[in-house]
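Galactokinase
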Amino acid sequence: MGDNKIVIYSPGRANLIGEHTDYNDGFVLPFAIKRYIKIEIEPSKRFKVFSQQLKKGIEFDTPTKTNSWADYVIGMIVKLQEHGYRVEPFTMHVDSDLPMGAGLSSSAALEVGAGYAISQMMGYEINREELAKIAHECEVEFVGVRCGIMDQYTVALSKEDHALFIDTMTREYKYVPLRLDDTKLYLINSGVKHELGSSEYNKRRHECELSLQAMGKSSFREVTLEDVEKIQDPVLKKRALHVVTENARVLKTLTALEDDNLVLVGKYLYESHYSLKDNYEVSCEEIDFLIEKLREYSNVLGARIVGAGFGGSIIVLAKGNFESIFEKVAASYRVKFGISPTLLNVETSNGVHRVL
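Tokens:
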């Protein structure tokens, strides 16, 4: 890499609460974390994209789909061009300390980071909201994952020491101070990722659409608990129940944060988990085991599964020395499942930014 090299840090994200609501016109409360995809970019004769993790790269003249990790970058080239932005060939090196498959949204970090890096290299400014929307188009239309906008918005727009409250229907957002004092947020990576993940994710989306049809509604924002009660199909009823109660929990969490009532925030995290387990059915035996073990300690204010589900990570809100609690929980988890979970101390971060 030469003197023209630009270096970008694009953060992962954790979601405090509001799970599986972002594609249902719901509310979410995520924040960016100090774990990054590092992108180095400089002009070159051909497009070259190299991954430090995978120790492999790809070269091309014309951006076309490859059905590989590189599509998150290639899709951004295509989408930026569609939006009228000029993109000239570059060499890009991608490195990361974001654990893959832990539900920390490495894909959105790569999309937003690549788009931001290209704009910096080409010397034009893209409004952050527009950058997030282009990255979302890349994921949905180019990569082919029908996700909501939460991840891209969080990576592009986050502010340190704040969560980002997003109304995914109107796409309005506001910054919510996270005053945690002696309380900290952690992520526990369960070390399991069940293959069900992606197929079940699309299935849940479809079930939510069917439950709306059953209630004669076009959006969950029009749905009350009384409407949910009228659904005949027990599975569809449970899916709708999760979305409606989870939206309410996000709003209650917002109020609790404004009142600095972290005990209440913790309570809502547990409630969210049990709804994801029983109503949305996206948890798994390993995650449930961890949650039940964590509940035995009064220092742990709350915890829940995060991300698409079927493994991945748990977010934990805890006081005092959580590391020693984690060691005990991890020991019993290893005995039962033969897997070592890992602990990530979570610090909030700014959104995508240039460091060089």
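The longest strand covers residues 30-43.
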